[in-house]
Fold this protein.
Amino acid sequence: MKIWTCLVALALLAGCGDDGSSTTDDSPEDATQVPPTSGKVAMREWLAAGHYKQWACEADAHDATIGVSPHGKQRICSNDVLAGHGDGEYPVGAAAVKELYDAEGASIIGYAVYRHVKAGTDGGSWYWYEEVPADHPAPHDADGIVADGLGDAGPAMSVCVSCHQAAGSDAAHPGHDFVYVQVQ
């Protein structure tokens, strides 16, 4: 009986081990629908894979939709969760990628990415990432990273959230819940 109990316990423990199939915030069931939140290396790999290009995307690069945008020429893509949502707080998993273009709109020079990572209507419930070229006027580190983290501290808060918190506040700031443009 004792051996049988031990075998059952071992079998149960083995079923609780990490076999690589579990999901975390950065390895969701469908990684094509949400960007990673674990830093520039993972983000660069994910962007290079081009998953977001299958989302709802604007047709072409264009001047910024709102006059206060520092992003210049851009093209925005919204994932299924963001694209399909109505009014109110975006669901966890809502995400968008903003391709940043050169002045002519011919070449991608950077990216801005945001993802709603936890319930809440403050900037800290969103993950923010932006990468620009070395000669870009936005404040950035030696790798071109403007922001990489939750919007409750650092550049993600002082750069991204400080602007995006105005989404939906008046006619000059369309959208809602930190998102200016929802591509459907």
About this structure: The chain has four helices and six strands. The helical segments are 2-16, 40-49, 80-83, 154-164. Strands lie at 56-57, 74-78, 95-101, 108-116, 126-131, 145-150. The longest strand covers residues 108-116.
